Amino acid sequence: MNVCIIGAGYVGLTTAAVLAKLGHTVHCVDENEQKIAALKRGDVPIYEPGLAELFTDHQSRLFFHHKQIHVEADVIFICVGTPADSKGKPDVSYVNRAIADLTPHINEKQTLVIKSTVPIGTNERIYNHFKNEGKHIHVVSNPEFLREGSAIFDSLYPDRIVIGLREDDDRSLSIMQALYAGIHAPYIVTSLSGAEMIKYAANAFLATKISFINEMARLCEAYGVDVVDVAKGIGLDGRIGPHFLQAGIGYGGSCFPKDVTALQQMAYEQNVRPYMLEATKTINDTQLNWYVQKIKRTLGHMSKKRIAVLGIAFKPNTDDIRESPAVSLIKKLHAHGANVIAHDPKAVLHNVDVKQANTLEEAIAQADALIVATDWDEYKQLNWAYVKQMMSGNVVIDGRNCLPREAIMNAGLNYVGVGRG
Ligand code: NAI
């Protein structure tokens, strides 16, 4: 099929690479001229494992356009951003602009797929917008569940494919199944709004699991219990499951914070009090300060102390720093007078007056304390005896409960985790 993707970000580019791999011809459109110029040169503007390789392997089927919508496409995807506005509501202006750009060109033979995470009712509104223009457009709500850092794998092997359709729209389901032929996953077919709600509910639930274990970590800390044992002990219960039970400095990224807040706002609009979402957000909003207090107690004071912060990205295997708790941590330590030196294998610190080391050694050398803020594999695999030699101090703070505690202690370093007794 011939596909047009509007919005060449993390979701748009991953979708493009995977659809090209499945044999489709894909035209990516973005309003960011530099991004399109880079893509045309063969440079992938984001770091996502396996993405650059797929782009190279299937370059004959991938095309990039600045603003110019590919009007002959069979299927048009909208993958533009939906960030939170100043009140925490989803800003759908990028989606609205993409729809306005499409309006003069789109025809009834085409299928319009909304992949961006949009507030409940948006897909219906889009359908009605075209209807008012005299066009009965096949609108499909097909939310995305990929995780940055494993986006290609998640798109090739998704747990499920959610398709939201209008009641009388049988054609669009077969189009989507043909488009995704080669990807084996159960289909959940629901209404347009049902698909929108599934996306928000999934992210809210995952964020809630993280906030739950973070609350347990605070309790474990108070009672001298190891939250890692607790997470294992509850996670092996099939009804609970082991995922998203790693206590740490809180969730971040471009999705969880904004999607939890968005769902909360949508609940208020309907006069439904979202007690659970409020608690999830409150725990996350207070987790970092709770941990910074603990760091302060551990180090006595922070003023002029050289602190190596390992990790800037909001999670490993990505260069994305949107809403990254690591960045918030760096800012807080800096505000406490610490001499912070940050490191990340891929992410770059912007607009923060803090030094970023080029190598891990440079970050660790002479550090009074070392804090792991993002659980990249290379931090987990450090040689702790060597780290001890390099540092001036002896405190290793594991903000993600991801480091080998025994090995660190055996190297003569003090280990401080999150809720580890
Ligand atoms: P992004 O910010 O990485 O990319 C969005 C792209 O759209 C940018 O390159 C921007 O220049 C472009 N754009 C905006 N308006 C445009 C327009 N009118 N015409 C052409 N291009 C336009 O966003 P990301 O992270 O890919 O997210 C996209 C959507 O997918 C959001 O709704 C997000 O919530 C959702 N999502 C994101 C996931 C993630 O892990 N990043 C996972 C699942 C869903």
UniProtKB/TrEMBL annotation:
GO biological process: polysaccharide biosynthetic process; UDP-glucuronate biosynthetic process
Binding-site positions, NAD(+): 30, 35, 82, 117, 148, 258, 322
Source species, domain of life: Bacteria
Enzyme Commission number, as recorded: 1.1.1.22
Family designation: Belongs to the UDP-glucose/GDP-mannose dehydrogenase family.
Domain UDP-glucose/GDP-mannose dehydrogenase C-terminal per the UniProt entry, residue ranges: 308-405
Catalytic activity as recorded in UniProt: UDP-alpha-D-glucose + 2 NAD(+) + H2O = UDP-alpha-D-glucuronate + 2 NADH + 3 H(+)
UniProt cross-references to InterPro entries, sorted A to Z: 6-PGluconate_DH-like_C_sf, NAD(P)-bd_dom_sf, UDP-Glc/GDP-Man, UDP-Glc/GDP-Man_DH_C, UDP-Glc/GDP-Man_DH_C_sf, UDP-Glc/GDP-Man_DH_dimer, UDP-Glc/GDP-Man_DH_N, UDPglc_DH_bac
Pfam families according to UniProt: UDPG_MGDP_dh, UDPG_MGDP_dh_C, UDPG_MGDP_dh_N
Pathway where this protein functions: Nucleotide-sugar biosynthesis; UDP-alpha-D-glucuronate biosynthesis; UDP-alpha-D-glucuronate from UDP-alpha-D-glucose: step 1/1
Parts forming coiled coils: none
UniProt-listed SUPFAM superfamilies: 6-phosphogluconate dehydrogenase C-terminal domain-like, NAD(P)-binding Rossmann-fold domains, UDP-glucose/GDP-mannose dehydrogenase C-terminal domain
Record keywords: NAD, Oxidoreductase
Residues reported to bind substrate: 145-148, 199, 244-248, 252, 315
Transmembrane segment boundaries: none
Protein's name in the database: UDP-glucose 6-dehydrogenase
Positions annotated as active site in the UniProt record: 255 (nucleophile)
EC primary class: oxidoreductase
One GO MF term: NAD binding
